[in-house]
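pinned: reference chain
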Amino acid sequence: MAMNNIDNVKAFLPLEYFKEISKIPRGSGNETEIANYLCDFAKKNGLWYSKDENNNVFIKKNATQGRENEDAILLQAHTDMVCEKNVSSSHDFTKEPIKLVFEGNILRADGTTLGADDGYGVAIIMALLSDSSVSHPRLECLFTSSEETGLVGASAFDYSVISAKSLINLDGAEENTVIIGCCGGIRTELTYPLEYEQTTLPAYDISIRGLYGGHSGEDINKGRLNANTLMGNILSYVYEKAPIRVAKISGGDKDNAIPRECDATVVTSFPLCDIKDEISTYAKSFLEAKEDGNLTVEIKKSTTSKAFSEKATLDLIKILSVPNGVLKYRETPPILPKMSRNLARIRTSDNGFSIGFSSRAYLEPDLKASTDELDKLAKDMGATTHHHEGYPGWESPSDSSLAKAWAKSYERKTNTSPEITLIHAGLECGIITSRVKDLTAISVGCNVHDLHTPNEVMELDSFKRIYEVASEFLKDFH
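pinned: its structure tokens
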């Protein structure tokens, strides 16, 4: 299918806002410009607004005439995006706009994440705020920052300004679902200190490429390989052939993305290039998901003058073999992951190496079990762990008037009944409902695929349809 410029797509209001948002660099922690843009938007539309020191923006709009006595509705989306790109891309997420491309009904980016997660939610709320034809009660609209790095903005917001009793979180990724619950999560940093040893042994670079990756919550049960744990398997396999010592390792980038690439440099007297085909075959024996069919393992000669000790190398292999992926499934429908772990990042420095984990679970004891296991692992080998502030899970009644009303609006627009369900991912609903008394929440959204990867795409007709459903919902919900 021919590639076309996004400007050729037939315009609708949320798409116009999405195009504007995509011009603004907005990786997690870099939300000042997008926050200022939202404040300017509020000014131009005569709306009350505020911005806090965390770049959370809160905008209010008065009710349509005749609906002033109805309870306010809280609409919420996050402004930041996951910044992932293909190795071949030179895109600078801190300075450059996202290059939007459409192929028929599909909107994607050129070699990077699209930022539909959660740019579409921001765009829909902006359209609802500026569209005078939409009937609604009072709207309280919260645009949060740094959701992708631990729900930071939502955790820091002052919720005393909220009066709403109903929350619509626009961060779902399947339009025919109404999400009424999600898991909680916590990030862990394991730091292993070491002193390098001098070496004159031959060195080899091992590179893993071609894995598909994905969202570390929603895609964790799809059998996609984790590049870091696969490297651990390769290192263990090679160690069985001959003693090796690792000199350097780097893999993954974001805590909430399944790592697609990993690189390691090892030293050994064994001629590693002689068995590169054997190692590649071994690596491919782990293939399960068809999306990972482009896996390649490259081995080539390298140089280094220092390496880990044998103990540190074996400890690294042990860490990389810690249980990863889905650790437990729910016993009752929907049969989703109940507990999972993503070995997300690994980096070496002059002082050692560090590894980032992301644990998810619906129940607090399961989260604690995951972090306790990492604590014990680290303590046994003289390493340390730091657990970042976590976020809670959340579940609203499946038969709430809010969920029923959204489902009814969706049915009228599509002649299809949405599924009311849970997801194995973190949403800000958990934090917000824990801070605002008597607040009922649902999460909804349009069809977005392959989140947190450069393959991320959004269906344009779904994007438009969800805006229409939201408008219908606001008109009818009392």
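why pinned: The mean pLDDT is 95. The chain has two domains: 4-183+393-476, 186-387.
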